């Protein structure tokens, strides 16, 4: 609590994020995607923008190639990602979403859209547009405009 007796904004942001993720996971579970890992959403969004290599994924996620490889191995085992030869470089393998991966990404995007419609209906367009502006300002233009986050926007 702050001196005014109101909850700390950092705690409220954390709790709001946790509730959003809880609702997203419940939605995905109901759609048959109950085996989602913590990093899956970032990988789905990155590969949804187009195929990339393990190195490219690691760079976008700002993790090591080994870490990206472990995530991909796990997602491949669960049927979300596959590796295919790069047509322009016989030595390279490109990561692609499988049909299941594309469907899971689509289910998550539908949830995001539905969630925003719901909060807009409850709080109004002006409040949500203002919230979006505040959050964007808090995140910082430099942060939002990185390739890492640009890949997550769509």
How would you characterize this protein structure?
With 154 residues, the protein is mostly helical. 65% of the residues lie in helices and 10% in strands. The protein contains eight helices and two strands. A hairpin with a 2-residue loop joins strand 1 and strand 2. The longest helix has 25 residues. The radius of gyration is 18 Å and the shape is globular. The two termini are 36 Å apart.
- How much of the residues is beta strand, in percent? 5-15%
Count of runs of 4 or more consecutive helical residues: 8
The helicity comes to 55-70%
Backbone structural class: mainly alpha
Q: How many strand segments?
A: 2
Q: Mean pLDDT, rounded to whole units?
A: 91
Largest sheet: 2 strands, antiparallel
Radius of gyration: 18 Å
Taking the alpha carbons of the first and last residues, their distance comes to 36 Å
Order of helices and strands: HHHHEEHHHH
What is the overall shape? globular
Instruction: Give the low-confidence spans.
Output: none
- The main sheet orders its strands as 1-2
Show the helix and strand layout.
Elements: H1 9-30, H2 40-48, H3 54-61, H4 65-77, E1 81-86, E2 89-97, H5 99-123, H6 125-139, H7 141-144, H8 147-150
Antiparallel strand pairs: 1-2
The gist of it:
By secondary structure, the chain is mainly alpha-helical. The protein has helices at 9-30, 40-48, 54-61, 65-77, 99-123, 125-139, 141-144, 147-150, and strands at residues 81-86, 89-97. It has a two-stranded antiparallel sheet.
């Amino acid at each position: 609590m702050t001196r005014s007796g109101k909850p700390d904004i950092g705690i409220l942001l954390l709790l709001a994020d946790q509730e959003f993720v809880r609702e997203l996971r419940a939605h995905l579970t109901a759609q048959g995607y109950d085996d989602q890992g913590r990093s899956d959403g970032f990988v789905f969004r990155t590969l949804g923008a187009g195929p990339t290599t393990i190195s490219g994924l690691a760079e976008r996620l700002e993790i090591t190639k080994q870490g990206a490889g472990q995530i991909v191995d796990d997602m491949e085992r669960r049927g979300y990602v596959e590796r295919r030869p790069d047509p322009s470089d016989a030595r390279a393998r490109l990561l692609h979403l499988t049909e299941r991966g594309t469907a899971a990404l689509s289910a998550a995007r539908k949830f995001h859209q539905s969630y925003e419609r719901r909060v807009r209906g409850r709080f109004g367009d002006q409040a949500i547009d203002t919230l979006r502006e505040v959050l964007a300002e808090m995140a910082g233009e430099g942060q939002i405009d990185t390739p890492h986050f640009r890949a997550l926007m769509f």
